[in-house]
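Table S2 (continued). Query chain:
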Amino acid sequence: MTPFDPTALLAMLLTFYPLVSVAELQRARRERPDYFAGGVLFGSTGEKLRLPDGRVFDLIFDASNPDPTRRRWQVIEPGPGRPDDETFPLERGPFTPIDGGRWPAPSGVNVFVPLVAAAYASLGDADGLFGRAASTIVEASSPAALTTMFHSTIDKAEGTIGSSRNRLNAADPSDIIIASGGQVPRIGKNEDEFSEPPPKDVPDIRPPTRDPRIPELS
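Corresponding output:
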């Protein structure tokens, strides 16, 4: 039996099976069983691999997510991380871990209520200030100015254009439409021969005969 190589298994899945799903994992197990080293697939969705020696590997990250773009191949042993595992050590960052023991224990005294009360007292006549502010807001939100402007503009315009609108509403073009519909939709033509003799006093409008002695102008 081929020894199990997690790196080779991951490289094979990434190369030949770009669509990450349990169905594709099962197909890879059928088509390339050597990479799985005799292991069997199991788990809630079938995304885990159990080897004959008892080791277990998780092969799909977020396997139950319906969005295929969120799933990806992986070959890791499931379980909580081990602090002493320095396989891939991280560099020390710019932040210092917080030491919880340095924080003082809660004293049980509410320090925020006195601060708010003192600030409220510094306002003096707080009720009067709030009342005047409320009156200002109510006065500014009153529709009286808008109502006055509406009556002086829109109502006046209504009286001016009302009669014209009424005449337009009363206009009835149906008689014109009916008369137009009764017209013959074609051009008339003279189908009979012209039998009247031409008038005798019609002037001769034929062009004059050219004198051959006068040369033509080119």
